[in-house]
UniProtKB/TrEMBL annotation:
InterPro entries, per database record: GD_AH_C (IPR048332), GD_AH_second (IPR007392), UxaA_altronate/galactarate_dh (IPR052172)
Family classification: Belongs to the UxaA family.
Name by which UniProt lists this protein: Altronate dehydratase large subunit
D-galactarate/Altronate dehydratase C-terminal domain: residues covered: 152-392
Residue ranges annotated for the D-galactarate/Altronate dehydratase second domain, each copy included: 14-141
Length: 394
């Protein structure tokens, strides 16, 4: 077992980027800015080892705040410290122009180039050009070596997906222990899932560092509820989900109390928008929906180098660029889905381990994953990506 005393903690090992941030992975990202380019981007990843990409339905006919949020997400993925370099692939006539995204990514100092399907004579020409560029980037990336860095440079996202009656008793509070450990060492822990904090917002507001942050807590909750009201629906028709109910949860408030446990006990420093990089160290709340892949994408685009993902029902969800550590809330599901789950917190329910002990195991796993150990979702190439849309498509 790895010791957890501050004096004996091994250093994290990562890759220093031109903008000063540290990455725990060294990917070359093939970033499609339009759904029309996603298939071509996937072909490049099949040709060039060391590249990653993702499928999505975004990038065109978006306006206003919805356009800006999608643009911010693209840039956040491209500038992410786990990414060495980027090939931005576009069609040529879309709203989210590949060149605009690339220009913003270039400000981080990392290698970035643009390939347009229309400018390169169609799909085959674009794939060939992107593969040539990506091959060069991968070779350059492979020459980098890891170097030590401290927890003050680490951002960890927290998420629960497919919660059950055990989540708020085992996996989520264990992640809360880890959140406190990271914050106490100068790092940042992101709490998300605004829809799944409804009913527990007062607990987080009480921990706000000042009145401004406390007021913001209630504002984001009200805004999320108002979105449902504007559609003429009750948010509780979708939350808890059918799987949550089968897992033993009865109300949204019950689910929220369990979800809030991931935040540990430290003060809430700030609230940030979806896919926005935190400006402060410590516990941070990102305003995201409860949808697993959309919230995961937001936290990663906001700079989280890795994510702690608890589940009571089981899920294969992962990220194309950030390792996702899956934590089961009950032993039965862990044993059933061992190919997807990294750690078992069901030992708390079994009575064989404490919440604090599980938290220490998760912390040890973070040390290993940050320094190169692959998670189950990485091994299975579970490259999920989805952006929270906040406007109509025109």
């Amino acid at each position: 077992m790895i010791g957890l005393c501050a004096e004996s903690l091994p250093e994290l090992m990562g890759y220093r980027r031109p903008d000063g941030r540290m990455g725990v992975r060294n990917h070359v990202l093939i970033l499609p800015t339009i759904t029309c380019a996603t298939q071509a981007a996937q072909r490049v990843t099949e040709l060039v080892h060391g590249t990653v990409s993702f499928i999505h339905q975004h990038g065109c006919a978006q306006v206003g705040a919805d356009y800006e949020q999608t643009f911010r997400t693209y840039v956040g993925m491209g500038t992410h410290p786990n990414v060495y370099g980027v090939v931005v692939m576009g069609l040529g006539c879309e709203t989210h122009q590949a060149r605009s995204v690339a220009d913003e990514i270039a400000k981080s100092g990392k290698p970035v180039e643009v390939v347009s399907i229309q400018d390169h004579g169609g799909t085959l020409g674009a794939i060939a050009q992107a593969a040539r560029i990506a091959s060069r980037m991968v070779q350059d990336a492979s020459a980098l070596t890891r170097e030590p860095f401290g927890f003050e440079e680490l951002i960890v996202g927290t998420e629960c997906g497919g919660s059950d009656a055990c989540s708020g008793l085992s996996a989520n509070p264990a992640v809360g222990v880890v959140s406190d450990m990271i914050v106490d060492r100068g790092g940042t822990a992101i709490l998300a899932e605004t829809t799944e904090l409804i009913g527990a917002e007062h607990l987080l507001a009480e921990r706000a560092v000042d009145d401004r942050v406390a007021k913001r807590v209630y504002e984001v909750i009200e805004a999320m509820e108002n979105r449902a009201i504007a559609m003429g629906v009750d948010i509780r028709t979708g939350n808890p989900s059918p799987g949550n109910v089968r897992g033993g949860l009865t109300t949204l408030e019950e689910k929220s109390l369990g979800a809030a446990a991931k935040a540990g006990t430290r003060p809430l420093q700030e609230l940030v928008e979806y896919a926005q990089r935190p400006t402060k160290k410590g516990l941070v709340w990102m305003d995201t929906p409860g949808h697993d892949i959309e919230q995961l994408t937001g936290m990663v685009a906001g700079g989280a180098q890795l994510v702690l993902f608890t589940s009571g029902r089981g899920t294969p969800t992962g990220s194309p660029i950030a390792p996702v550590i899956k934590i089961a809330s009950n032993t039965r599901m862990f044993e059933t889905m061992q190919e997807n789950m990294d750690l078992n917190a069901g030992t708390v329910i079994d009575g064989t381990e404490s919440v604090e002990s599980v938290g220490k195991r998760i912390f040890e796993e973070i040390l290993q994953v940050c320094s190169g150990k692959l998670t189950k979702s990485e091994i299975l190439r579970q490259h999920d990506f989805g952006i929270w849309r906040i406007g109509p498509t025109f």
